[in-house]
Design brief:
CATH architecture of the largest domain: Up-down Bundle
Number of domains: 2
Shape: globular
Radius of gyration: 22 Å
Order of helices and strands: HHHHHHHHHHHHHHH
Number of strands: 0
Distance between the termini: 33 Å
CATH topology of the largest domain: Growth Hormone, Chain: A
Length: 405
């Protein structure tokens, strides 16, 4: 057969369809649901805890209340790397099950606590079960590289929905059952996740069980692309926390809503942002433009933060900017872990995602602390100044990113 005939023959072959196969869809959907239920349990506490904690002994101290909320994030940051490494060595399911047991136990301790200090210990226990890296690595194991961003987008969408739903459910649960009832519900959600992890999700283990820990650390910590992505998720979540420190009072004032009604803005905005996110994800996977679209999403995020300074007194423009903000955020939330999983080998994926999730947890802590300090110093939108600086530095860094799709 001549080369021309070979070319003609190959050109007639149908193009491979870029979609999740049934096995990938099943695993990704169930892992996204597992992640969402666990995050829903965490989100339930955020809208109401500061107000309810005042009725507990020690709850009149804003420092202790802040520690109770932040203890989870700090212990998560400490445990992400060792548990990510353990997920590479002992398997994703083993680490996820162990982490969920700690999550459930921490919820029970907090539910039985009579003081703010007891809740702090419960939150510390919950944070020790840092399984985000193991779940994300499990998603990566279950999917082909060319559709992995789509699977990560499913996880990101489920987390966004969990957050929006928590704003509605949390005040209802607290009104009926109090703070203790909220922690019992969080533990119940953890138990449902445990059942799903044990019986509901197939295992996709890396082929090589024995790993060289020193070599794995050398690869992960010495990879320039991974450091770009780790820095990116730090900035992304620092900006998000600054947003949630700054934006709720602004929305409440401009739209005449109280805190319990903010879901009426967040829910439709987040749902509409998923349309943009999936359009971008499909484009990225079809055209393999990961680095280009990363830079574009960072630029959009920066422009929306800048726009908040000009639209804060115009409610409908504020809603449009919020939609663009969450469109950029959700796209970056799906794109970056997919890129991490492509750069890292299967046997180092848990460790790489552990480092990535550690940077994310630190971003949450720094963003909340820095945002609060700048708001006290510069006024209601003070935190957005630090966000703009971080995003500009991130975009400059991303310009030099060389990523092979």
């Amino acid at each position: 057969m001549s080369s021309a005939e070979v070319k003609t023959s190959s050109s007639r072959q149908p193009k491979q369809r870029l979609s999740l196969n049934p096995g990938e869809r099943k695993a990704s959907t169930r892992l996204a649901l597992l992640f969402a239920l666990r995050m829903f349990g965490l989100f339930l506490l955020t809208p109401v805890f500061a107000a309810l904690a005042q009725s507990l002994p020690g709850g009149d101290s804003s420092l202790r209340v802040g520690i109770a909320l932040g203890a989870y994030g700090l212990t998560q940051a400490v445990m992400q790397i060792p548990l990510g490494l353990a997920a590479d060595r002992f398997g994703r399911r083993t680490v996820v099950v162990g982490g969920l047991l700690l999550f459930i136990l921490g919820g029970v301790v907090a539910a039985l606590a009579q003081t703010i200090d007891g809740i702090i210990w419960g939150r510390i226990l919950q944070g020790l079960g840092a399984i985000s890296a193991a779940i994300t690595a499990w998603v990566a194991d279950a999917t082909r590289p060319e559709v992995r961003t789509r699977a990560m987008a499913m996880v990101g969408m489920s987390i966004g929905l969990s957050f929006a739903l928590s704003l509605v459910v949390s005040p209802l649960v607290v009104g009926q059952f109090g703070l203790s009832g909220l922690f019992w519900l969080i533990s119940l959600l953890g138990f449902l996740c445990l059942l799903m992890a044990v019986w509901g999700i197939p295992q996709f283990e890396p082929s090589q069980k024995a790993i060289d820990i020193r070599a794995a650390f050398k690869m992960v910590l010495g990879n320039r692309i991974l450091w770009h992505l780790n820095g990116g998720v730090f900035v992304l979540h620092a900006v998000l926390m600054t947003f949630f420190v700054s934006m709720p009072p602004l929305l409440a004032a401009e739209m005449g809503l109280d805190v319990a009604q903010l879901w009426q803005v967040y829910l439709p905005v987040i749902l509409c942002s998923f349309v943009v996110m999936f359009a971008w994800v499909f484009y990225i996977e079809r055209h393999k433009q990961h680095a280009k679209m990363l830079r574009l999403a960072i630029a959009l995020l920066g422009l929306t933060v800048l726009a908040f300074f000009f639209v804060q007194q115009h409610p409908w423009w504020l809603v449009i900017v919020l939609w663009l903000f969450f469109s950029a955020f959700n796209t970056l939330e799906a794109l970056q872990p997919s890129m991490v999983s492509r750069v890292a080998n299967a046997t180092e994926r848990g460790l790489a995602l552990g480092v990535y999730n550690t940077a994310q947890s630190l971003g949450v802590f720094v963003g909340a602390a820095l945002g609060g300090a700048l708001i006290a110093w510069l006024g209601p939108l003070g935190g957005f100044y630090s966000s703009l600086v971080l995003i500009v530095l991130w975009w400059i860094s991303a310009r030099s990113l060389k990523f092979s799709s």
